[in-house]
Amino acid sequence: MKSKTILAIITIAMLLITVQQALAENVTITSQPVTSATLNQPYEYQVTATSPHGDPLTYALVQNPSGMSIGSDTGMITWTPGQVGTFPVNVSATDGNTTGYQAYEVTVTSEPSQISADHLEMGGSNQKRDETTTREWTITNTGSFDITNLEREIIGVHDRYEFTLDLPSTTIPAGGSINAFATLNVPISEDAGSRNLGTIRLTGTAGGEQRSLERNLRLEVENNLVIDQVEVRIGGRRERMTSPGIVDRRAELGDEIEIRVRVENTFEENIDIEDIELETFSDDLWDADGLDDFISRLRSGRSAELVINFAIDPRDVDPFDAPFLIDLDVRGIDENNAWHGETWDIEIDLDTATRDLRILDARMSPTLLRCEERTLNVDVEIRNVGRRDLERGMLRYDILDVDYLEWQRDIEIFEGETRNMNQRIVLPENTEPGTHYLQIDAYPMGTGSSTDTELLTFTVEECPVEEPEPEPEPTPPRNVTVIPGTPVDRTVGERGFLGLQGDAYIVLLGGLVLILLIVVVILMVVMARK
Q1: Rounded to an integer, what distance in angstroms lies between the CA atom of residue 398 and that of residue 407?
Q2: Could you read off the pLDDT of 340-363 as tens digits, one per residue?
C-alpha cells in the first residue's frame, strides 16, 4: 500500500515538472499593452516577446477592431480609431514551435477640437522699409472633430500697415491644417527691431461648441545702426569683442575701465542717422550704471566710436556679485524718424586675491581742532574681499607730517565679512597749526604689503595771541596859559572857549568863575564901608 502511494506521488511530481518545462518553453509576450486611444488620432503599441530557443518571431492579430494592423516582423501595432468605444484586441507571437498570446482592451475617447497656431511673424532682420512683405500662416485643428465656420478678426492693427489675412477655407478637418496668406506694408518710418502690431482672433465651431484662439501679429524690420565691435581696456590692457559675451581678462578692485563701442550706419541708401547715444545699465556695478556718450550725426557706410570710463571702486562694489553684467545700449534716429540701434550684454569678472582687506569708508571727527584741542576719533569700515578668513588683519594710522604712527593689530574678519573699527588719536603737543593728512593703510596679514589706502585731512587752528592793554593817555595840566595872538576856532560843537577842549576848557571855565566871585566879594566890601 505504501509503495503504491509513493509511486503515485512520484508520478504526479514528474507530471508537474513536465508541464512546467512545457510552459517554460513557450513564447512569452513581455510588453505592457497601450489601453487608451483618442478618436481620429494615431494609436501605436510596440509588442515585444521572447522565444525560449532564441528563434525569430512572427506577430499577428488574432482579434482586432477595424483598421488596426501589426507588423509581422516588427510587432508594431498601428491604428487610427474612427469611433468612440471599447475594443478587444488579442495579439500572438510565434517562433514556429510555440505561440504566446496577449489579450487586452482599448478604450477610445474623443478629444475636443482646438485651433492651434503660432504667433504670426512678418518681416525679418533684413526687412527693408517702404516695401510689402508676405507670409504663409499655418492654422491646425488638434482635436477629433472638424472645425467649421472658421473666421478671423484683426484687432488693434493700424491702417498704415494695410494688413490683410486670407483664409483658404472655413473648415479645418480633424487633425488637419490650412495655410492662410498674410500681406503687410512696411512704413518708411518704422522703427528697427521686432514689435507687436496687434492681435488676430480666430473663431470656429467643433462638435457643436465654439472654439477660439488669439495670436499676436509681429513685425521685424531691418536695423541700420549696429555695434561693430567693443574694445574693453582693463588696467591698461585692451581686449576686442566682436559679439556680446564675457570679457576674457579679469579686472581687479580699483582698476580703471574704458569701454569703446564702435557703431556703424549700414544704410545702403544715402540716409544719415542722427542723435546717436550710448547708455550703460548695470544692477551690481553702480559706477558703470547710467553712463553715456553722444554723436550728433553718422553718415551711411560710416562708423564712429562712443567711449565710457569708470572705476571698480571697492567702496561701491560687492566683489561677491561678480561677474558684473553691463548692458551697452545704442540708439539713434534716421532722416525718416525711424529709430535704430541694438544692445550688447558684456560681463566683467573679478580676479580676487587669496588675502585682500579693503577700506570701504573712513571718517574723522572733528576735522577742525580748536586751540589746545588734540583728540581725533576715526571710524573705519573694512571688508575682507579675499578668498580666505583673516585672523591677523591690521590697520596702520600715519599722520604724514607729524610724529604719529599707530597700529590696530590682530583683526579677525571672515571671508566676505564687514567690520567697523574705531581709533582714538591724540596729537603731540608740538603739532603745528595748519592742514594735516592722516593715511590709513589696510594689511590683510601681520606682515606684507598694504592692499588698500585711505587719506583723510584735518586742520589744527592757530591759537590767538593776547594783545597788551593800551597805556592810559596823559592828563593835561590844569593851569592853561593863553598865548596872545593864537587864533581861536569858533566852530560850534568842534572846539570850546578860546579853542580849548576837554579838561583844559573845564579848568579855564572854573578859573573865570572863581575870579568873578572874588570881584563880587570885593564890591560888596567896598559898598559896605560906604
Answers
A1: 9
A2: 999 999 999 988 788 889 898 999
